[in-house]
């Protein structure tokens, strides 16, 4: 008699080439975990049915990507501590018959950040106020970072994030509406691009930031996973900053999801190699 493997996956829309599938399944194979990860195309109006299906089939959990990260909340039984502040879920986890919503995006970012700096007490400049920015800002604030300056084109969206940080986390936050070329203030310790500027195929797009305001001693991070070496990171590296690419966040949010679903601490290097292979970043074998 054979039994079904542990079932996990993602509910997304228009993400058929989602690199997460290959990355997570590479980790399952590497660790001998008898589990599968399936990417399911789910239109917004079918999200509730998809979640009920996952429950009925006894899935261990699933990731949610755009446009489901906020909408999924009403279909779950509860939220983890930081996802309830962020107000968005990218990872649902079956626990004792309940589906609990977690957010591993910001935690994945912080895991990568901790390899180069402890954000506690550090001042943070954050470009963007969308889903990725919210997750990063809340996790960084809960880890003791601050003050946090949110720089965003849409002042209303930026103000919402600043209000959330000031009211629900210990960090002090302020807003700079992004109307002209931004100069990073001298005292900034950590600078993060959490906008979609630079994402493949728009690889030549540039953030409206004065590159000469990036100074040696700053940590400059980008959420863009593809290509991992963005124009911002190239400019920052040329000026002596420590840089962090978006692959670290992508891989680490996957590591944390796998831990939630299986209890296994997956090897991040195996997962990173798989993504680099998919993005064509590895040298061909000699
Ligand atoms: P959202 O659509 O929620 O937010 C997009 C943000 O980018 C907004 O703040 C928007 O500003 C800003 N933005 C877009 N275009 C410009 C521009 N030309 N100039 C200035 N700001 C701009 O997207 P997400 O937050 O979900 O995703 C953002 C990026 O993060 C994506 O590229 C995604 O691939 C990446 N990501 C990476 C992850 C990883 O693991 N590495 C995980 C999750 C996301 P405004 O509000 O003014 O429109």
Structure description:
There is one protein chain. The chain is of the alpha/beta class. The protein has 2 domains: 7-103 and 250-278, Rossmann fold (3-Layer(aba) Sandwich), CATH 3.40.50.10860; 107-245, Rossmann fold, CATH 3.40.50. It contains 9 helices and 12 strands. The strands form 2 sheets. It has a 6-stranded mixed β-sheet with strand order 2-1-3-5-6-4, sandwiched between helices. Strands 9-8-7-10-11-12 form a 6-stranded parallel β-sheet, with helices on both faces. It starts with 5 loop residues before the first strand and ends in an 8-residue tail after the last helix. It binds NADPH dihydro-nicotinamide-adenine-dinucleotide phosphate. NADPH dihydro-nicotinamide-adenine-dinucleotide phosphate binds at residues 66, 105, 108, 128-133, 152-154, 157, 194-197, 199, 223-225, 246, 249-250, 253. The site of NADPH dihydro-nicotinamide-adenine-dinucleotide phosphate has 25 residues, from helix 4, helix 5 and helix 8.
CATH topology of the largest domain, what is it called?
Answer: Rossmann fold
- The name of the CATH superfamily of the largest domain reads NAD(P)-binding Rossmann-like Domain
Write down the overall mean pLDDT. Answer: 94
Share in helix: 25-40%
* Molecules bound to protein: NADPH dihydro-nicotinamide-adenine-dinucleotide phosphate
The neighbouring-strand order within the major sheet is: 2-1-3-5-6-4
CATH architecture of the largest domain: 3-Layer(aba) Sandwich
Q: What is the chains' assembly state? A: single chain
- Please report the distance between the alpha carbons of the first and last residues: 44 Å
- Uncertain stretches of 5 or more adjacent residues: none
Q: Gyration radius, to the nearest Å? A: 19 Å
* Order of H and E elements: EHEHEEHEEHEHEHEEEHEHH
CATH class of the largest domain: Alpha Beta
> Which structural class is indicated by helix and strand composition?
alpha/beta
Number of domains: 2
Shape: globular
């Amino acid at each position: 008699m054979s039994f079904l493997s542990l079932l996990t996956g993602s509910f997304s829309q228009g993400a058929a080439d989602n690199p997460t599938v290959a990355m997570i399944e590479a980790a399952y194979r590497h660790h001998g975990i008898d589990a599968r990860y399936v990417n399911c195309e789910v239109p917004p109006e079918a999200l509730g049915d998809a979640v009920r299906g996952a429950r009925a089939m006894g899935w261990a959990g699933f990731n949610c990507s755009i446009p489901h990260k906020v909408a999924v909340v009403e279909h779950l039984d509860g939220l983890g501590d930081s996802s309830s502040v962020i107000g968005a879920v990218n990872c649902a986890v079956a626990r004792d018959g309940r589906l609990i919503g977690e957010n591993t995006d910001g935690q994945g970012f912080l895991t990568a950040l901790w390899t180069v700096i402890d954000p506690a007490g550090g001042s943070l400049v954050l470009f963007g106020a969308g889903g990725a920015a919210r997750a990063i800002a809340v996790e960084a604030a809960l880890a003791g970072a601050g003050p946090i300056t949110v720089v965003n084109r849409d002042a209303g969206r930026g103000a919402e994030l600043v209000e959330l940080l000031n009211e629900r986390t210990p960090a002090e936050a302020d807003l700079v509406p992004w109307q002209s070329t931004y100069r990073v203030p001298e005292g900034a310790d950590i600078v993060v691009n959490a906008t979609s500027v630079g994402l493949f195929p728009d690889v030549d797009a540039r953030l409206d930031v004065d590159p000469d305001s990036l100074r040696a001693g700053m940590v400059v991070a980008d959420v863009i996973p593809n290509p991992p070496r963005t124009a911002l990171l190239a400019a920052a590296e040329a000026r002596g900053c420590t840089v962090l690419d978006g692959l670290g966040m992508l891989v680490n949010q996957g590591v944390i999801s796998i831990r939630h679903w299986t209890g296994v601490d997956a090897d991040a290097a195996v997962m990173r190699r798989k993504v680099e292979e998919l993005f064509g970043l590895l040298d061909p074998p000699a």
